[in-house]
Give the backbone structure.
Amino acid sequence: ANGTGKSAVAHVGKNAIKAISTLPSSISFGNNNGDGIKIDGNVNHCKKTRVEGIPHGNPSTMAFLGIRNKSDGAAFRQVEEYDDDGGYVIGGTSAVAGAIGADAGRSHHEAWMVNLGRGDDDWLTGPRDVEWFTGKAPHVCPGVDEHGILRSLPLPNLSAVTRESAKDYFDNSWTLFETLFAGLKGEEPFYRPPVHGLRHPQIFYYGHTPCLYVNKLRVAGVLDKPVNAYFESIFEVGVDEMLWDDMHKNDMVWPTVREVYEYRKDVYDTVVNAIMNHPSLDDKNGTEPVMVNQNHPMWALFMGFEHERIHLETSSVLFRETPIELVQKPENWPHLHPSAAELPTKSTRPVEGVDYPSNNMLAVKGKTIQLGKPLDFPSYGWDNEYGERTVSVPDFMASEHMVTNGEFWQFVADGGYRKKEFWCDDGWVWRKHRNIKWPFFWTPVGPQGSHEYGLRTIFQEIPMRWDWPVDV
């Protein structure tokens, strides 16, 4: 915006959101707090003022312009850039008018940072209270143990489904997922893409699991309308791990966490209503359980359950890849295995039989095996589980147990990450792409070349457990 009426260009990320327009000598915008932003053509008069009649509650517009709300966490350093006539350019490493009273806390700007500074930081920092949970809070949720730790319920028996059993499993799945997401500290980890760039930011997955419930129940005829059509479009499709063809979403202006939180509340109520009232689950007050198979409309409901649990697992890996200062252990999350509390070995060069067990190779006799899940098996199954296939397996050797950190350390210290002959073609391309020199979840604790490592878990960094299975 400048005093001459020249055009200004705004560009956000790879999805090429561009706006080209002739602007007046001053321009005003509203933010979530009812404050207005007025930018005068004179760069020295750029200031934050109260502007009457400006619509507020539009965080996406504010984020697009790089304007910060009242927040202590700096989104990015607002770098002032000028054109030849003294106007402000929106885009690249700059944002509207430099700071406009904003906190300059970052040394550079990345496209995803346009989502920060929209008022979500305070309520997402520190332990979550009961308000965070859009369904049942963990301490009253099915699956909570005597210590207040939320555990997974067993897989439902689909030959005898009641409304109560379906709702219990739904509540358990839903609250487990939200308990995991209580481990994100502040707004930044919701929007920061993973370091490898091969998955969406966590805000996508926070909205994706409720979206699937709605869309699949609509396809099955259980629901007749969307809950939020826009959200059920942008949160519908994840990533094809073989193609990585949809990663431009990482740079888009996402809804705020609060907006997705409200969406989750609406979806929770919608799904509970379907469980408790849809005629296809009429169990005569629990006296006549219903069989749910692939021809039953509520097969889509159980798809939603298992889909949510898939993302509980995959999102936990993304948490483990998130900078440690951006995560926190949720109150109701299970503790690490008890062996984590044992005194760690002081050895930086683990010894077989001392720091980790020997891993003998065992002979396994070959035989003919039958693969495939019967259609009438009383649990939910994905399409690739069904059908029949007979396979003749020859004799082979298998290790006695999973490869440990200690055993794999020998490979790392011997230069295994530099030797192409130990890698398949795809694995070697991946190793070079990431410039990986040791397992991603090993944290160096000594000088380069010393091969001294700690271990990153989902929410903590701990001394290395050489006898634990290695994650590569």
